[in-house]
Amino acid sequence: MTYDKAPHRHDGVVLIVDDDDGVREAMRDALTDESYQVACAADGREALAYLESGPPPCLVLLDLTMPGMNGWELLDHLAQKPALAAIPVIVVTGASPAQRALVSATRVMSKPIELDVLLANVEAHC
Amino acid sequence: MTTIAVQQFELFCRHVSEPLLLAAADGRLLAASRSAARLFGRSCETLKDSSLHDLLDGSSQALADYLSSCARSTGAIPGRLCLKNGAEERRLVHCQGSLLSADERGLLLLRLRSVDEANRFVILGQKIQELANEVLLRREAEAAQRALYEEAERARAAAELAVRAREEFLSIASHELRNPLNALKLVASTLHRTAVTRPERLSPAWTGAKAERALEQIVRIERLVSELLDVSRLTAGRLTVEREPVDLFEVTRAVVEHVRQQHPGQDFVLVGEAGVVGEWDAMRMEQVLLNLLTNAAKYGDGKSVTVAVARVGDEATVEVRDHGIGIAADDLGRIFERFERAVSARNHGGFGLGLWIARQIVAAHGGEITVESRPGRGSTFRVAVPLRESGGAAT
């Protein structure tokens, strides 16, 4: 595995939405180590509250299967508001291809998440 | 001439119920028993001195031949007579005719046996019985076959259910394992990447923090795998319980301490005294208590949890009472089943097997777990185990 050696400084916030504590923290650590700013939400409701209350993040990394409001439902909510609908969303999921097809997201990242794929995706948007 | 014989016959007939006729060889009917007279539909008196040729249907020659063969016989000659009774009905009778007395010329005794309607019914009855038996046997065979088929269906359905349950379990298991594995992989990848691109960042503090994150996920994986193994062992009936003298109060105290560290801020109140000693599998009992206490912390809504250990007779009890979200009455029966959670929050981790495993462990100790709960008010889980193994070997 080869890596780009230059450190980055970034504007904008990456919003991580995942109900699993371990995955969420690991993604946050990976991104903050690369000097990204990160916000976290444990389910769709928290994410929606965050998105409606402040400036839009540069990217949302969204898990699909979550209790309470899941990823599909959050996407439906976002689609209804033009300001929110413009925010890039990458769906991160272990869900089956059939389930993923129901989603109209910028991109889908499958679990297990590879670090370089994660970083490449985030860099493309932030 | 024949008077004495007739008198004797009539006397004889009073003690005999058979249809008997006393006849002369020329066909003159001398006397008849009452039952014989009934066959003719007449009285004995009116029959006297009648002619058999008048009383019987059929050719007189045949009758004459029969009578003369009876007169010449040394034994009884079988015959069939067709009686005419008063109503012009024909009655078929079997006849055993024999020479009664050689002194009188051809004094014959005819012993009648009616080919009775009753016989026909008897035979018919027998036939009906046979048919009924056959039908019954056939129905029983069909019922047995149906029972076998239903049994096979049940077995097949049960097997299908078991297969489906296992498939579902494997799917849940692989799904649940994916998260901690993914988190672990990200942590390791970050470590690796940093070591390659920015080794100057590998300070003890930074590296230590990463290692801690990695270990957290490993512990999670260990727990899930252990549950997986427990389930497979329990399903195969291989769970063994290794008993040793244990103070249940001390075990509970240790588990409470452990859970306190995992859930800082959660208040646990331990009630009871040391000395609740019995013979149990300490590690397995720890597992049960850990499950109950962890659940109480998760679903206890932050409120205080009471853990009471006591000895009651030759039983030890542990009660874990929380004042949290509680469990609906409909769910109470289900929560001890595999994969069931009354709260479907997957980030609480585990496969939903904790209570099921706990119940198996307690049952293997000869005990019981029960629960009382009210939604919004909280739940009380109660474990009761005998102090020691009773009687025979535990399975």
Distance between the termini of chain A: 23 Å
- Please indicate the percent range of residues of chain B in DSSP E strands (runs of 2 or more): 15-25%
Which pair of chains has the greatest number of interface residues, and how are they split between the two chains? Answer: A-B, 27 and 29 residues
Mind describing the biggest β-sheet of chain B? 6 strands, antiparallel
Mean residue pLDDT of chain B:
83
What is the overall number of helices of chain B? 11
Low-confidence parts of chain A: none
C-alpha Rg of chain B (nearest Å)? 50 Å
Number of separate strands of chain B? 13
Which blocks of ≥5 consecutive residues of chain B have pLDDT under 50?
Answer: 341-349
Helix content of chain A: 40-55%
**Approximate helicity band of chain B:** 40-55%
Order of helices and strands of chain A: EHEHEHHEHEH
Number of helices of chain A: 6
Coarse shape of chain B:
rod-shaped
Query: What proportion of the residues of chain A form beta strands (DSSP E)?
Result: 15-25%
Describe the strand arrangement of the main beta sheet of chain A, using strand numbers: 2-1-3-4-5
Largest sheet: spatial strand order of chain B? 2-1-6-5-4-3
Supply database-style keywords.
heterodimer, A: 126 residues, alpha/beta, five-stranded parallel beta sheet, 6 helices, 41% helix, globular, B: 395 residues, alpha+beta, six-stranded antiparallel beta sheet, 11 helices, rod-shaped
